[in-house]
Amino acid sequence: MSSITELMPFVVLIPLIAGPVCVLLPGRGLPWLLATFAMTTAFIIAALVLAAVFDGGTLRYAFGDWPPPVGIEYRVDAANAFVALLITGVSAILLPWGKPLVDDEVPERQGSFYALVLIALAGLLGITLTGDVFNVFVFLEISSLATYGLIAHGRDRRALIAAFRYLIMGTVGATFLLIGIAVLYILTGSLNMLDIAERLPVGEGSRALDVGLGFIVVGLSIKLALFPLHHWLPNAYTYAPSLISALIAATATKVALYVLLRFIFDVFGPAYSFTALPLAAGLMALAIGSMFVGSWLAILQSNLKRMLAYSSVAQVGYMVLGVSLTTVSGLTASFLHLFNHGLMKAALFASAGLMVYRCGGMGMNDLRGIGRQMPWTLTAFALAGVSLVGLPPTAGFISKWYLLTAAVDAGQLWLVALVLITSLMALFYIARVVEIAWMQPRPDDAPAVEEVHWTLLLPVWVLVAANFWFGIDTRLTVGGATRAAEALSSGALP
């Protein structure tokens, strides 16, 4: 067993152990420092794991030296190593950025707050790395329960309602997923993903297998916030503390999409998944619905964070659209947008959080005229918005270019028009924020604001720079997405 393989579990264990320790630490500084150190260390290990996967292929770690399928294993290929790098990298950047905002929004019990942050992130990483379907459910519940508590920390009373709504929808989604996993266990007697794939009676046309696939797809679509199962997301993103909005927007739905892809391609197999049920057509219809409904509702919003939340619904549509093409190029585009959207949405929510921090409100009227007083923050928001729209030379452009190319290769030329239309809709709502902040005068009775300290701007600009860097040098993102798609499809897709 290589040294990198032995390090793999620590990507999950470090935040999982550091979380409870945060509760024991006094004051505000120590819990934050431990959380930042934990996620930075996890990021370094995740980067080493990704490099090892690129060099030598899939890594496997059996807990307690119990071989699978009897024992639990972590199995890391290009797909989940790519997602783990996103989760840890974004977290390591956002935690230093978020400290003053957390001090303002969550002035008390910060040890408990950072404990929940680390437990939520450990849950997401556990979902990503495990090769066991029941562990997917367990880690999903760990992450979800911590996230409900984090959303409830928002200082607006509506945060409690948002957390409760998310809890209800999340519980429904988890129940559907658990029923689907139970069906798989009844049919195969195994919980290991690869072992289930070998034992499934996919060639026999089992009605129970169809039901299991349906339950899993619906359950994960709720977690993914795919239209029309997205209603929990806008309030959750809007009323959560700014750090939590940025973290879950950049990571949570990405992990849900990854798990959905892992079940479709690794467990059931694409040959069965796209023939037993009209899954490709259904996913395409829901993806288009997400793109248009999310974009249209984003245009209608007068609340900055809610606008970005509905934008996330639309962006989920792009990711799922690539999957629905049932080609390697479409799957590559989905993984590429999964990674790039994490970067752009983290930058957008981080810059929006700074505006809310200074203005004291999330309404568009609160932003009038602040561009002259917070030029660095507004410029960062505008540039991240350029990536969201998909203009060159940004990571968002690369994502959409690959998605459009995949649509053309699949003979779905009409999808090109839909992607371009919804991109123009994104341009409209991003430009509206910039126009309000830069062009409109600051009201006389509005409180004066000033630019934030450079230490708050630095993480935001690192994210913005990443959006442009990966729009120019695509070796990591395109290479990682291509390897991820090939690892999942295993030659079964055209």
TrEMBL record:
It is a multi-pass membrane protein. Keywords: Cell membrane, Membrane, Transmembrane, Transmembrane helix. GO terms for molecular function: NADH dehydrogenase (ubiquinone) activity. It is found in: Cell membrane; Membrane. GO terms for cellular component: plasma membrane. It comes from the Bacteria. Residues 131-425 form the NADH:quinone oxidoreductase/Mrp antiporter transmembrane domain. The chain crosses the membrane at residues 6-25, 32-54, 74-98, 110-127, 133-151, 163-188, 208-227, 239-265, 277-300, 378-399, 411-431, 452-472. One of its GO terms (biological process) is ATP synthesis coupled electron transport. InterPro entries: CPA3_Na-H_Antiporter_D, NADH_UbQ_OxRdtase, ND/Mrp_TM. Its main location: membrane. Belongs to the CPA3 antiporters (TC 2.A.63) subunit D family. This is Multisubunit sodium/proton antiporter MrpD subunit. It comes from Spiribacter vilamensis.
